[in-house]
Write a structure and sequence with these properties.
The chain is globular, with a radius of gyration of 17 Å. Helix 7 runs antiparallel to helix 8 (170-190). The chain is mainly α and 202 residues long. The relative contact order is 0.14. It is built from eight helices and no strands. The protein has one domain. Keywords: Cell membrane, Membrane, Transmembrane, Transmembrane helix. Belongs to the UPF0126 family. It is a multi-pass membrane protein. InterPro entries: Gly_transporter (IPR005115).
């Protein structure tokens, strides 16, 4: 039940980040719904296809679609009446990244896959929706920027798995990994944290 509720929360948060990105790109309401939907289900769809989970989660459970529509409508109403806070998109994306990365890792973990595969599946689940959103709205994908992004997901999932291996209860390990992803991503946003940049001379 907790995994399901967190999955719904991730859907809602990523849908909101899609609305914000679509609004900045000047799309009409249909375009906003499309971007919100792609952002919300992109990572989970890739996860299910790679793990051969059929039907795909949002086809199997239509409630996910309702959550996307409700979150999209709420976000549209909010930005219509209130000023959009600075870094609102990045903050929404940070929370969505954390939720989807961790839940994606748990889905892969339940398949008893190798540790490296669990980390990769979790990271793709967290990052793929945002990648599609950024490409469709003509922005440099956050995944490819120099700030902490995909590496935050990798670190959080790795911490989750290591804590479990050390005997920490799964729930607490999950929350610790989730908080680490958010903390690292916020450090990238507000603290300018980043991985070393490769610079080649001409």
């Amino acid at each position: 039940m907790l995994l399901y509720l967190l999955d719904l929360a991730g859907i809602a948060v990523f849908a909101i980040s899609g609305v914000l990105a679509a609004g900045r790109a000047g799309l009409d309401w249909l375009g906003v719904v499309v971007i919100a939907s792609v952002t919300a289900v992109g990572g989970g769809t890739l996860r299910d296809l790679l793990l051969d989970r059929h039907p795909v989660f949002w086809i199997r459970e239509v409630r996910y679609v309702y959550v996307i529509l409700a979150a999209t409508a709420a976000a549209i109403a909010w930005v219509h009446f209130f000023t959009l806070p600075e870094h609102a998109l990045a903050l929404a994306d940070a929370l969505g990244l954390a939720l989807f990365a961790m839940t994606g890792a748990q889905v892969a973990e339940e398949r008893r896959l190798p540790t490296l595969v669990v980390i990769l599946i979790g990271t793709m689940t967290g990052a793929a929706g945002g990648l599609l959103r950024d490409v469709l709205t003509d922005r440099v994908p956050l995944l490819l920027s120099s700030g902490i992004y995909g590496s935050a997901a990798i670190a959080g999932i790795a911490a989750y798995l290591l804590l479990q291996a050390a005997g920490t209860p799964r729930r607490w390990a999950f929350h610790a990994g989730l908080l680490l992803v958010v903390a690292l991503r916020l450090g990238g946003i507000y603290g300018g944290w980043h991985l070393p940049v490769l610079r080649l001379s001409a």
